[in-house]
Design a protein that fits this description.
The chain contains three helices and five strands, in the order βαββαββα. The chain is α+β, with helices and mostly antiparallel strands and about 120 residues long. The protein has a five-stranded antiparallel β-sheet. A hairpin with a 2-residue loop joins β4 and β5.
């Protein structure tokens, strides 16, 4: 079971600490309601830094079984999360494939989320 990347892009001018908090809240919701593991992306720190690892702010790795019910629950979490914040974009990457889900009107958000089912059906 391969990891799927989920990248949160905040609105213009968002502070890194605020984006980090929003991403961690989304991870908690995904774990609670979609029953997927959601963990921050660890990256290699820059040479000369004192930390052994760094976290890519706004990025999560999702792991689990992406069944129809899981995808439906994930869609619901993303819809609520985006609608509540009314800004930002979520990009989901699975290998070379990606889908972007952005706010906008409820109809536009619904259309973007409806593509999520097809996205998972194409998964190996």
């Amino acid at each position: 079971m391969a990891d799927v990347a989920l990248i949160v892009s905040g609105y213009p001018g968002i502070q890194p600490a605020q984006l980090d908090l929003m991403t961690r809240e989304l991870a908690t919701d995904i774990q609670r309601y979609a029953r997927l593991a959601a963990r921050p992306v660890q990256s290699t720190p820059a040479p000369g830094s004192k930390s052994g690892s760094a976290v890519d702010i706004g990025s999560l790795l999702l792991t689990g079984v992406f069944s129809a019910s899981t995808v439906k629950a994930l869609s619901s979490v993303l819809k609520t999360w985006i609608a509540h914040r009314r800004a930002g974009t979520i990009t989901i990457r699975d290998g070379d494939r990606k889908i972007e889900i952005a706010g906008g009107t409820p109809k536009e958000l619904g259309e973007a989320l409806s593509q999520l089912t097809g996205f998972w059906e194409q998964r190996d």
